[in-house]
Amino acid sequence: MSDLPHSRSAEDVLADFDASAEGLTSGEVRQRLAEYGENEVVQASERTLLSIFLVQFNSVLIWVLLAAAVLSALAGHAIDAVLITVIVVVNGIFGFVQDYRAEQSLEALRELTAPTATVRRDGTTVEVAATELVPGDVIELESGDVVPADGRLLEDVDLEVDEAALTGESAPVSKSPEPVDPDTPLAERENMVFKSTNVTRGRGVAVVTATGMDTEVGSIARELAATEETRTPLQGELDELGRRLGIGVSVLAALVIPLLLMRDTPLVEAGLTAVSLAVAAIPEGLPAVVTLTLALGVRTMADENALVRRLPAVEALGSVDVICTDKTGTLTEGQMTVSRVWVNDSVVELDETGVEPPSDRIDLLLRAGVLCNDATADTGDPTEQALVEAAENHRIDVEALRKEHPRTDEIPFSSEQKWMGTVHGDVGYVKGAPGVVLSKCSRVLTDDGPADLTSEGADRVHDQVRTFADDALRVLAVAYTENPENMEDDLVFVGLVGMIDPPREEVADALAATERAGIDVKMITGDNVRTAAAIAGELGMHQEVTEGRELDGLDDEELAERVEEVTVFARTSPEHKVRILRALQENGHIVAMTGDGVNDAPALKNADVGVAMGIRGTDVAKQASDMVLLDDNYATIERAVERGRAIFDNLWKFVAFLLSANVAEVALVFLASLWGYLVLPAVQLLWINLLTDGLPALALGADPQSGDVMDRPPRDPDKGIIERPMLGLIGGAGTVSTVLMLGLMFYVIGGAAAITPYAMTMVFTGFVFLEFEKLYVIRWLRETPTFSNPWLALAVGGSMVLQLAVLYTPLNQYFGTVPLGVEDWGIIGVVLAIGLPAYLAIVLTIKRYLPLDENSGEGPH
């Protein structure tokens, strides 16, 4: 059986599959069905709902927290254990919901396939379920069919197939049974049809060469199944943070428990101190609040037509330094449009406003294009639809014109003759390939009427065809005759029509904006080099172009060098796209991939951020992506990058705020325990974390973005969020908080041998209010105006009310607190007054010696 059926004759391919043009017998079908299996795209492995839920707890942070909950329960502190468990479960539910929504890409591939197929069996033509097709079956195709399996054409009549979803080719492909070179790219294999593509015109007969997972769509499904979920930089850092904290907690417990036992501390109390240290060290709210902060940003992005399917992608989007974009339907409109016509030495640019007034020759050209045409504005061949749209834009009533000049005869288009003719009473019109139509013409239409077509005139037409083609225009010639009984010669040449899938109007500005933000843009398309280069030029992109077949000759190391130089990749296959992406990622880039076709799905899933088109995108592309553009507008990507960077700024503030609090809590509990004081039990530490990680942290997500967010380069992918500026802030602010709280503890404890409820309440409350003061200082560090976020003010106020509730309501019996008097609040006020300039000094030091732009950079370009 041949691995390259496109390079062999139809007879040889039939022989390879031990088949004939009359089809297989039922017995042969049963045997092959048992050998090859059903013709369907199957999912290699499917995660159960339970497995998706359980994987949410595969984290060191979670393990340490669960261990702390168990210890609390064993020690009789049920409230602590319940609080810890609730936090863990809520975080797991958030993760489960997001993962479950992302588990459907292969199912979409299965639904894409044709439900039935017309096949020759036992000497007759029958309709069967497409899943029953086997290699060697002979199938019949006609306009409107979804191709049910990969096949080698045996015969065709004017067959055209829309393969855009698979190859990226914007126009339907004319098919022919003739063999092609073995190295012919997928998009140029005119004698092959592929599963899940659409027949737009004509009829054909093909022998099935591959079914199910062996088809081109099946190979994409296999690629999707083998693709591991990419992790964003923040996810990796949080995992690493969890590992380090787990080790740190173990070391602290190993130190504290023996020390306390040596001081005759009861074992239970020593164990509770270790639990408190664990709770203080672990930012248990971090995963949940990061998720919620991202979710708030996602809601805003959805209002801006960017639908995020996977929350961590928001953070990665702000770090992207390369965008790999498909051309068809992404940078371009995704539909053919008449952009230029030529009538005897005159080139006229056409647009939606039309030519006012249209010349007689242009009017005739457009009318002929409509009459010699089987399409409407909404249905039919895209090329013919473009002619109808151009006529309508030029005030031609297409429906009335066709009623006024009904078709009385026709010569249908075929891929062999490459032209089409229609007769309307005494006049015949012809359109088709320029060289073919010109060869049938003896005259050319001029301003003064028809004139003899000289060799010089024919050369000018050929020159104009080449000029149009160099601008990536698809060119048709139009002619007419007043002797419709003979349409093979003596035609009058009217002119040329140049069509293109034009760039979107807003894309050039969006590309310029993303490039100003330090993001390289690369076009990866299945279209040919000439078309890709022309579109890139119109959009202002650098036109260093290479073809997919050139990439096949490069090893991974050579490809890694080449991808840095090339801007436009043409004639690429799905495998090429994934190789390009991996090469860029190996070079240290954070890569976003945009696309809309089935062929884009593996690259979308492999990318750090996969961006699918919402209107033109296939379900497969959407399910494999991290984000969907609801308006198919490339400019939305620019806004999404801007939003992603703003969200990252807010995450930075939150992580710095949270970790500096955790450092202070650990240091306070540890140092106080050395004096024999358990100053903050686990329930109070959890409450502090809930207040700071809760409403105020969420409100940070609504902080306005800074004005320079798109003037910065992307964050250096080699540098994490927890870099020198943040470490300086965590260490400095944590030290200030620890010193102030230790001082407050020793002041209010008055030399007592054990901690008192009053002293514990003072430190507990002082710590909460000190954290809110620090929060506003951290926002100032990120250039956020103090009173720019009313939601934050409400959140802080609400948290303060909750803190008062645990002091002055019956809740105090669960937290071990007592009510405070006016004098006590005065003492806390003094602590806050000392803390503010101390925090500001830390921030000013960081701004001077550890500037925040250390945390961003050009990255490897």
Automatic annotation (TrEMBL):
**Keyword set, alphabetical order:** ATP-binding, Calcium, Calcium transport, Cell membrane, Ion transport, Membrane, Metal-binding, Nucleotide-binding, Translocase, Transmembrane, Transmembrane helix, Transport
Origin organism of this chain? Answer: Haloarcula rubripromontorii
Q: What does the UniProt entry say about where the protein is found? A: Cell membrane
Q: What class of enzyme is it?
A: translocase
GO biological process terms, alphabetically, are: export from cell
Give the E.C. number(s).
7.2.2.10
Matching NCBIfam families: ATPase-IIB_Ca (TIGR01517), ATPase_P-type (TIGR01494)
Q: Name one GO molecular function term.
A: P-type calcium transporter activity
Where does the source fall among the domains of life?
Archaea
Q: Where are the transmembrane segments?
A: 49-71, 77-97, 245-262, 274-298, 654-678, 752-770, 791-810, 825-846
SUPFAM superfamilies associated with the record: Calcium ATPase, transduction domain A, Calcium ATPase, transmembrane domain M, HAD-like, Metal cation-transporting ATPase, ATP-binding domain N
**Could you name the Gene Ontology cellular component terms for this entry?**
plasma membrane
* UniProt region (Disordered), positions on chain: 167-188
Q: How does it sit in the membrane?
A: Multi-pass membrane protein
Name of the protein this chain belongs to: P-type Ca(2+) transporter
Question: Does the record's keyword annotation contain Glycoprotein?
Answer: no
Domain named Cation-transporting P-type ATPase N-terminal is located at 4-77
